[in-house]
Specification:
single chain, 307 residues, mainly alpha, 79% helix
Length: 307
């Protein structure tokens, strides 16, 4: 049997192209926070997520049919299919379900810090499980990026931490973060098994929506106030966030490896802060901008970690 590092080798691309796609991935991923906040004024988080994934799956069907025209059907790799399904459930149902639930009682700043540990877990698991080469530069880059995240978000969370934080909510977010790290590695196996990105997304998104649907019914009664906020948030999250980030993440995993793909999550607090400033009019202190410097420097090391 071949070793994981050989069977899951990356398809190399230029670093500027990898950085461009990774930056766009993080930007779109971060925008979901604002869109989700808007959508949750009209319905519960689990209901919103379930409908988001089901709608995204429905939108992918005609795209998949169009891309499959005239293409010879390849034999189905069941192991890759199982990996794709598990990755989708871990990312969409487990990670987002736990994170959205935990955010109801945990400050946004502390949530960002906990969620931004995902690249550290991803890199460690990739090295142990997939034998991905990730040298000391990559490890140093992840630590530098995480330092920048703590710098940006630490001050925002410190006041709430002093007042006491819901430990159960924080545990939910941390558990979801570990699920996100594991899903990145499973996506690596799905891509290596020959499944195309649109096919993987078509497996992951509807399955996640169906998995969350009974939970949404049980906890939230699927209660919805049908207004412009609901429709706008749902459409954006389904068409742009769910489909866009899934396809970009699979591309990053295939061309950069699991650890590098996960490293772009370090940019999420930077983009979330800038989007909140631009769209919500929130004030951004200069210390936040200073915290972006080690994140950018850390990502530069992650993209060229050496061996």
């Amino acid at each position: 049997m071949s070793s994981p590092s050989l069977s899951l080798s990356s398809v190399p691309v230029s670093l500027p192209r990898l950085a461009l796609v990774g930056g766009l991935f993080s930007l779109v991923w971060s925008s979901a926070f604002i869109a989700g906040k808007i959508g949750m004024t009209a319905t519960g988080p689990l209901t919103l997520l379930s409908l988001r994934f089901l709608l995204a799956g429905a939108l992918l069907v005609p795209l998949y049919v169009w891309l499959a025209r005239g293409r010879r059907k390849a034999p189905m790799d069941r192991a890759a299919l199982r990996a794709a399904l598990a990755a989708g459930l871990l990312t969409n149902a487990v990670y987002l379900g736990l994170a959205y639930t935990g955010m109801q009682t945990v400050p946004a700043g502390l949530t960002a810090i906990l969620a931004s540990t995902s690249p550290l877990w991803t890199a460690a698991l990739a090295a142990l499980w997939l034998r991905e080469p990730f040298g000391w530069r990559g490890a140093l880059g992840l630590l530098a990026g995480f330092t920048g995240v703590v710098w940006i978000m630490g001050g925002r969370a410190s006041a709430a931490v002093g007042a006491g934080v819901d430990s159960f909510g924080a545990a939910l977010i941390l558990a979801g973060t570990l699920a996100l790290a594991a899903s990145t590695l499973l996506n690596r196996q799905a891509v290596a098994g020959g499944l195309d990105p649109v096919g993987i997304a078509l497996v992951q998104l509807p399955a996640s929506g169906l998995a969350l649907l009974p939970l949404a019914w049980w906890r939230e009664d699927l209660a919805i106030r049908f207004d412009a906020a609901f429709y706008g948030s749902l459409a954006y999250q389904a068409a742009v966030v769910s489909i866009g980030t899934t396809l970009m993440l699979l591309w990053l995993v295939r061309h950069g490896g699991a650890a590098r793909a996960g490293g772009f999550h370090l940019l999420n607090p930077v983009f979330a802060t800038l989007l909140a400033m631009a769209l919500l009019g929130e004030a951004v202190p200069s210390s936040d901008l200073a915290g972006a410097l080690p994140i950018i420097a850390g990502l530069a090391l992650v993209l060229r970690p050496g061996r």
